[in-house]
Write a structure and sequence with these properties.
By secondary structure, the protein is α/β, with parallel strands linked by helices. The protein folds into three domains: 249 residues, Aminohydrolase, N-terminal nucleophile (Ntn) domain (Glutamine Phosphoribosylpyrophosphate, subunit 1, domain 1, 4-Layer Sandwich), CATH 3.60.20.10; 191 residues, Glucose-6-phosphate isomerase like protein, domain 1 (Rossmann fold, 3-Layer(aba) Sandwich), CATH 3.40.50; 155 residues, Rossmann fold. It is built from 17 helices and 25 strands. It has an eight-stranded antiparallel β-sheet, with helices on one face. A hairpin with a 2-residue loop joins strand 12 and strand 13. Helix 3 packs across helix 4. The radius of gyration is 26 Å and the shape is globular. It starts with a strand and ends in an 18-residue tail after the last helix. It binds 5-amino-5-deoxy-1-O-phosphono-D-mannitol. The site of 5-amino-5-deoxy-1-O-phosphono-D-mannitol (M6R) has 15 residues, from helix 8. Its EC number is 2.6.1.16. It catalyses: D-fructose 6-phosphate + L-glutamine = D-glucosamine 6-phosphate + L-glutamate. Catalyzes the first step in hexosamine metabolism, converting fructose-6P into glucosamine-6P using glutamine as a nitrogen source. It comes from Atlanticothrix silvestris CENA357. One of its GO terms (biological process) is fructose 6-phosphate metabolic process.
Length: 627
């Protein structure tokens, strides 16, 4: 979490840094700061709270500096106070550093540096870095290298343990910006006589599309003349930027009140893009009408699938499990990545391991995959890792880690609450399960064609749902804005959607919400129910419809107000539910892509009515790069 930016060039840096930080605020927003070098001094301005606080402070200052670094923080070490905000400086205030990540050995380093006379001003792990760099700068032999600053940073990072990305400037080297990547994202942007760095591309896309993502263990020296890349040993590396397929307007709200609402409305387009990319014309296809670009040997003798993910991606993986088991007949386990890393399943042969992460940067998911890769190394061939990533950011750390990726086609998502990336992940799982089913011949071709044709109808069904539900959910939001607890029920393939509906409500409206498999209610949670606890039940005709309706009746008998996500013309449902969030009649197997939409809208409207910051909910960050 945390976002970092840097600039060196011919323009005033402050506004460029602030504009970049605005685009990175989704990564953390409890304090922010920038440092520049001007007239031989480091100027550092920091503010607690959202970025506009920093902006107001900076408005009173004239600063034409053409080099600078900036940071937006999600607190890990030390409270969200101004003294803990980045950039952090050394004792003499000559070196300034911004960091995204965690320095695990900061306590030992801090003690050692204190003994050498360094004075610390914050509670953060980051502050050891400028002090360490200053220490190396002090002790470098005169004229030891063409860039003593680069050398000092390189020596310092060799002492750091943890996952981090940093950007560093120094008052004594006003033409150098040094950036480092070690297991936290960092991208460099190439302009004409100006260069940028950032934790993520939206921060620099307004200035350049020529980008180079750094790899782990790389250091870059940015000067007005160009960019040099080195490894931690000091060897120069040859690397070329590539062109980014992202326009500045893709990261604007385009008339919507919030990014989240815009992203909910983009979902029909996401499904269309996925259909086009993953599914070929049935007549043209020989073996399988699905094209994911995965090598055939990937599927050979496949016995089991293990999936690791967090949050909303974990919910998508649960839908994936249902599809992979029911369509392709492969036993599939879904794990919280943060748990799996420390308690993995026993090693099984012929196992596909899938990491699902929209950002491609979630530390828990990356660590679980790295652990799995490592423990399978050197094993018999059937135990070797077959790794697959499902991500919306193929250029991410996940993309560097795994050999095969299913690229989800949501486009950039800014709202911290995942919406369109969830739908895109579902589409990836439909494609994967159907492809496996085709190869394993577990589903007859006619049935595959029927399912794919059903998927092709989904975009217009989502459009119809959005049109019908905007005012319905707004109306319900009025009734529920002060509600304290919510229960979401679903069964079978819609159980993960109940979990997702509850998560959306919790994270943006701060209302306590739980998702349950409807049949589990009677085993305990039913004790929670009374007239103050509304129950949202997803009831789609199919294998468990009658069961869900019965479970909903049980809730109604305990006075709960019942809200049904159910087909438009269902008479029985209309009688039972107090309120309806009607969806079209679709095949139960495809229904999660549709049933999640009213739940997203409900959460959105409740949070908006409560006057909350929908796109940047408290305590959260879009990209969780710490464990
Ligand atoms: O980038 P990832 O998909 O790995 O992120 C995982 C979770 O942090 C994420 O889904 C989180 O739960 C979202 N806030 C959900 O809206």
């Amino acid at each position: 979490m945390c976002g970092i930016v840097g600039y060196i060039g011919t323009q005033a840096a402050t506004e460029i840094l602030l504009a970049g930080l605005e685009k990175l605020e989704y990564r953390g927003y409890d304090s922010a700061g920038i440092a520049t070098v001007w007239e031989g001094e480091v100027n550092c301005v920091r503010a607690k709270g959202k970025l506009h606080n920093l902006r107001s402070k900076l408005e009173q200052l004239e600063n034409p500096a053409q080099i600078g670094i900036g940071h937006t923080r999600w607190a890990t070490h030390g409270k969200p106070e101004e003294y803990n905000a980045h950039p952090h400086l050394d004792t003499a205030m000559r070196v300034a550093v911004v960091q995204n990540g965690i320095i695990e050995n900061y306590r030992e380093l801090r003690e050692e540096l204190k003994q050498k006379g360094h004075e610390f001003r914050s509670e953060t792990d980051t502050e050891v870095i400028p002090h360490l760099i200053a220490e190396f700068l002090k002790n470098l032999p005169a004229s030891s290298s063409s860039s003593p600053f680069l050398d000092a940073v390189r020596q310092a990072v060799n002492y750091l343990k943890g996952a981090f990305a940093i950007a560093v400037i120094c008052a004594d080297y006003p033409d150098e910006l040094i950036v480092v990547r070690q297991q936290a994202p960092l991208v460099i942007g190439f302009g004409q006589g100006e260069f940028f760095c950032a934790s993520d591309t939206p921060a620099i896309v307004a200035y350049t599309r020529a980008v180079l993502p750094l790899e782990n263990g790389e250091i870059a020296r940015l000067t007005p003349l160009g960019v040099e890349i080195y490894n931690f040993a000091g060897d120069r590396l040859k690397k070329q930027p590539r062109m980014l397929n992202l326009s500045p307007t893709m990261v604007e709200k385009q008339g919507f009140k919030h990014f989240m609402l815009k992203e909910i409305y983009e979902q029909p387009g996401v499904v269309r893009a996925s259909l086009e990319a993953y599914f070929t014309n049935i007549e043209e296809s020989s073996e399988s009408p699905i094209n994911l670009g995965l090598p055939r040997e990937f599927y050979a003798d496949l016995a089991q699938i293990q999936i690791v993910a967090c949050g909303t991606s974990w919910h998508a993986a649960l839908v994936g499990k249902y599809l992979l088991e029911q369509l392709a007949g492969i036993s599939t386990q879904v794990h919280y990545a943060s748990e799996y890393r420390y308690a993995p399943s026993p090693l099984t042969p012929n196992t596909l391991i899938i990491g699902v992460t929209q950002s491609g940067e979630t530390a828990d998911t990356l660590a679980a995959l790295a652990m799995e890769k490592e423990r399978r190394q050197g094993q018999e061939p059937q135990y070797q890792a077959r790794l697959l990533g499902i991500t919306n950011r193929p250029e991410s750390s996940l993309g560097l880690m795994v050999p095969h990726i299913i690229n989800t086609l949501a486009g950039i998502e800014i709202g911290v609450a995942a919406t369109k990336t969830f739908i895109a992940q579902l589409m990836a799982f439909y494609a994967l399960a159907l492809d496996l089913a085709a190869h394993r011949q577990t589903v007859p071709l006619e049935k595959l064609v029927e399912i794919i044709n059903g998927l092709r109808q989904i975009p217009k069904e989502i459009e119809a749902t959005l049109e019908a539900q905007e005012s319905l959910t707004e109306h319900l939001a009025h009734d529920f804005a002060e509600t304290k607890d919510f229960i979401f029920l679903g069964r079978g393939i819609n159980f993960p959607i109940a979990l997702e509906g509850a998560l959306k409500l919790k994270e943006i409206s701060y209302i306590h919400a739980e998702g349950y498999p409807a049949g589990e209610m009677k085993h305990g949670p039913i004790a929670l129910l009374d007239a103050k606890v509304p129950v949202v039940a997803i009831a789609i005709p199919g294998s468990v419809y009658e069961k869900v309706i019965s479970n909903a009746q049980e809730a109604k008998a305990r006075d709960s107000r019942l809200i049904g996500v159910t087909p438009v013309n269902d008479g029985e449902a209309a009688e039972i539910f107090n309120d309806l969030l009607p969806v079209s009649s679709v095949d139960e197997l495809l229904s999660p892509i549709l049933t999640v939409v009213p739940l997203q809208l409900l959460a959105y409207h409740i949070a908006a009515r409560r006057g909350l910051d929908v796109d940047q909910p408290r305590n959260l960050a879009k990209s969780v790069t710490v464990e």
